[in-house]
Structure formats: C-alpha cells, structure tokens
Design goal:
By secondary structure, the chain is of the alpha/beta class. The protein folds into two domains: 5-17 and 92-175, HAD superfamily/HAD-like (Rossmann fold, 3-Layer(aba) Sandwich); 19-84, Putative phosphatase, domain 2 (DNA polymerase, domain 1, Orthogonal Bundle), CATH 1.10.150.240. It is 38% helix and 12% strand. The protein is built from seven helices and six strands; from the N terminus they run ββααααβαβαββα. The chain has helices at 19-32, 40-43, 51-61, 68-84, 96-105, 118-127, 172-175; strands at residues 5-9, 16-17, 91-92, 108-113, 136-138, 165-168. It has a four-stranded parallel β-sheet with strand order 5-4-1-6. A two-stranded antiparallel sheet has the order 2-3. Helix 1 (19-32) packs across helix 3 (51-61), helix 1 packs across helix 4 and helix 3 (51-61) packs across helix 4 (68-84). The longest helix has 17 residues, at 68-84. It is elongated, with a radius of gyration of 17 Å. The two termini are 12 Å apart.
Length: 183
C-alpha cells in the first residue's frame, strides 16, 4: 500500500490569521494591568513562541517586567479571554480552502502542528469550520483535544519518518514538528 502524502501546516500565521484575536487577548490583560493597548500593526511582530512570550513582550514595550507568578496569572487570564473570543476576527487566509480542496483531489491529507494549546487549536478549527479537513493535531506534551488524535507519540499511527510528508509554516514550530509518522 502506498502511504498517503501528508501536508503538515503550522496553524497561526500559516493557515489562519489569528493575530487580531491574539492581540485583543494581549490588550485585555494589558488593560487590566493599567497599560495602554498595543496596536495590531505593531503587535504582529510580537507573536510567536506562545502566550507567555507575547505577554512578556507586551509588558516590555512599556518598560514593565513581571514575576513568574504574575506572568502565570496573566497567561491564565489571556487564555480564558482568548478561548472566549478565539474566532471573533481570526480567519483562514484567502485561498486556503480552495488550495486544500485542490490538494485533497491530488490525494494529500492534512495535519496541523502548532505550539498553541491543543484544546485551543481544536476550538479554533471547529469555530472556523476547518476541523474535518485535518487528520491530526501535533502538539507534543499537551492534553489531547476531544475528537483529534493527541501528539505524534499517541496518534496510533505507524511511527516512522515519512518521505511523503511536508511541513509548511512560518516558524520554528513547523520546522520542529517534522513528523516521524504517517497518516
């Protein structure tokens, strides 16, 4: 049997423009700290490496630094707010669905590899009507999202490097998630 050809996409900034909702969540926590909002155009370059790092960068813009306890609290507030507003302004990039349709007709299957919490990844894909297009979400070390296989080690899929898999993304998250599995 010929293995399926797999395209593994990074989620944020590759499949979906999530910057508006991420920055709104950042600005929510900054506002609660009495700090001014970060404009979307300036904040886009701050995204990457997760919510904690985004919050740290937002605080640093104002010359503020926080303790580990403060960052943990702010991250929890950020995640709660973000989950409630995860698809208010986030949208698939123009042409994404057509490209996925075309690749699917050529026999490709799809997976997501991201540093976003797995349950948030699933929630975002659900809200945008994209969940059914992806066979797996790869996030090592995080809890499984209902309805999706967990990390690569728990996929229940043959675990060997597949020459027919191609990661696509704009960050080290994608590069570091080259799958040792096939779907």
């Amino acid at each position: 049997m010929t293995p399926s050809r797999i395209v593994v996409f990074d989620l944020d900034g590759t499949l979906v423009d999530t910057a508006p909702d991420l920055i709104n969540a950042l600005n929510f926590v900054l506002d609660r700290e009495g700090l001014p909002p970060v404009p979307l155009h300036a904040a886009r370059m701050m995204i990457g490496a997760g919510a904690r790092k985004l919050i740290e960068r937002g605080l640093e813009l104002e010359g503020r630094f926080a303790t580990l306890e403060d960052i943990t609290r702010l991250t929890s507030d950020f995640i709660d707010y973000y989950a409630a507003h995860i698809a208010d302004a986030s949208r698939p990039f123009e042409g994404l669905e057509g490209a996925l349709d075309e690749l699917a007709t050529l026999g490709y299957r799809f997976a997501v590899c991201t540093n976003k919490l797995e349950w948030l990844s699933k929630l975002l894909l659900d809200r945008l009507g994209l969940s059914s297009r992806f066979a797996a979400i790869c996030i090592l070390g995080w809890p499984a999202a209902p309805g999706f296989p967990s990390s690569a080690s728990n996929l229940g899929i043959l675990r060997f490097r597949s020459p027919t898999s191609s990661p696509i993304g704009s960050s080290s998250t994608c590069a570091n998630c080259r799958p040792p599995w096939k779907i």
